[in-house]
Amino acid sequence: MSVPALTAAQPLAESTAQSAAQSLVQSVDWLAIAPPTLVAVVGLAVLVADLFLPEARKAVLGWVSVAGLAAAALLLLPLRDGDRSTFCLTGQPAVCSYTVDRFTLVVQLLVLGGALLAALLSVTTLKDADKGLPEGEYWFLLLSSAAGAALLPASRDLATLVVALEVASLPAFALVGIRHGDRKSSEAALKFFLSSVTATAVSLMGISFVYACTGSLYLTQVADRIQHVDGRLHTLAAAGVVLTLVGFAFKTAAVPFHFWVPDTYVGAPLPIAAYLSVVGKAVGFSGLILVTVVALPSYADAWGPALAGLAALTMTVGNVGALRQQATRAYSAVRLLAWSSVGQAGYLLVPIAAAAYSDDPQKSVGSTLAYALMYAAVNLGAFAVAALVGRRSPLNRLTDYRGLYASNPLAALLLAFFLLCLAGLPPGVIGLFAKVTVFSAAVDAGLGWLAVVMAVNVVIALFYYLQWTTLLFRAPEGAPEGEPERHRVPAPLTAAIALTGVLGIALSGAPQLVLRFAATGLF
């Protein structure tokens, strides 16, 4: 009798197993994941096309990459209607690995816009390269890194965060050292790689500590469970919180994880230095925000003081390093921009640190994003003008900018505008308002000492920004009498300078376009 009973039970068991299997099959929201997916697909297509195109036709790969990045940015428009999530736990639709919300869209716009402008600069750089950079590999690596960077702000579990961070980072190492036979480039790539790997290893250790305490990698579950950790595990949890931040602090070039920045910016092709200064920072800061404000708000007493100290140290070391640059030294302009980016990273850290002490941490996060959007536009513009000057003065010294107004008035005026925005002086209104927003976030959170440190550093930064600005309008030393020599500017470089100039001026005319994030928050 037992055999027929088992036989009768088999269809029911099979039906139950099939039903359970079907419940694990999820539909993918392809529109939500479309922007990073399109960038990755275009990267693969470019790599394959490079195998078949003749050398004379490979310039088309650059324009395909530019078009792909522009199309990915346009795909953000249909996502504005509301929050979308995919790759969620079965039966728990609120616990997902990929979420598109307001925060995600702002950071993805910053990433894709920054990558697009870096791609425009790259078209000219690849055409002018003396040794001939490998175009197919270059565009594949750039698009791969951009795809990882666009994935990171949508990541809502620690595993996806780390994967996105590494997908954004690993191609960047190769891009820094892509100049074959260039010792300076190879050394910069090696330093960048070794320091990044070390920081990532420390972060993975921290994530393992957090997972050991909570049993989950999903940010929302971690936020809930870490509040109820057994008392014996509090020290382990606090250590995990601090260690997890290290990898993202490295990406933001926060002191003491900044030492790779000057040599890397000098050794890399200039468009890649511009890319790292903006997109690399966007990756680091979005990761920091997700880990601190979303996953670990209950441990604000651990990460708040740590980030406040990092902010003060970073802005001070960065500005002092920029102040010490010698105008006649080779690549001093690029080095000054590198140290300036370290100093700017300190300002960007201030609102995240303030979120630990604020009653409304989302508004503090909004201040960081508002400042990051301003910084991205004007910093990419400064790099674009540096690329223009570097075409006739390969050493790119600060002294090479002397008299730029005489030979190229529009480029000189735009560079002066970009530098004044970074300094926070009129007519760079958006830079001034962005700094005031960050300053207010620190004061409102009760971090008066940090606001004072920031004010001192703003004054220090004024000196080297204004010093560079005045060089633009001085007469060149030993310049012959008569009409100054003028050089033809390639169309992609002209487009990059024009786009950043229009964006910077538009934001100065209507600063509410980005400052509203500081008033309303992002999540």
Automatic annotation (TrEMBL):
Listed transmembrane segments: 31-53, 60-79, 105-126, 138-155, 161-180, 192-218, 238-261, 273-296, 302-324, 336-357, 369-389, 410-434, 446-466, 493-514
List the subcellular locations. Cell membrane; Endomembrane system; Membrane
| BP term (GO), one | ATP synthesis coupled electron transport
Q: Name one GO cellular component term.
A: plasma membrane
- Which is an annotated GO molecular function term of this record? NADH dehydrogenase (ubiquinone) activity
Q: Does the keyword Transmembrane helix apply?
A: yes
Q: Does the keyword Calcium apply?
A: no
Which PANTHER family has this protein been placed in? NADH DEHYDROGENASE
> Under what name is this protein listed?
NADH-quinone oxidoreductase subunit N
**What is the gene called?**
nuoN
